[in-house]
Specification:
With 75 residues, the chain is of the alpha+beta class. Helices cover 71% and strands 16% of the residues. A two-stranded antiparallel sheet has the order 1-2. This is DUF1049 domain-containing protein.
Length: 75
């Protein structure tokens, strides 16, 4: 089982490396009045990290709300 997980991790790492190498061209990013040029691979990485952070925060918030609901109202 450990060998299978290691093989999957290696394959995923290679796929991510290929994605980054093939997407080094510059793209323009605009947000409201702010704009900058960055490699597409870096933009993908930033979006991925922001998605992980926001997803974890949302999961934590929902689990807190669920635990409050199961304990009942406080008086």
């Amino acid at each position: 089982m450990d060998t299978l997980l290691l093989a999957i991790k290696i394959v995923v790492t290679l796929l991510v490396a290929i994605l980054f190498v093939q997407n080094i061209n510059l793209v323009e990013v605009r947000f409201l009045t702010w704009g900058m040029r960055m490699p597409l691979a870096l933009l993908l990485l930033v979006i991925y990290v922001l998605g992980m952070v926001s997803g974890k925060s949302l999961f934590h918030l929902l689990s807190r709300l669920r635990s409050r609901r199961s304990r009942g109202p406080r008086h």
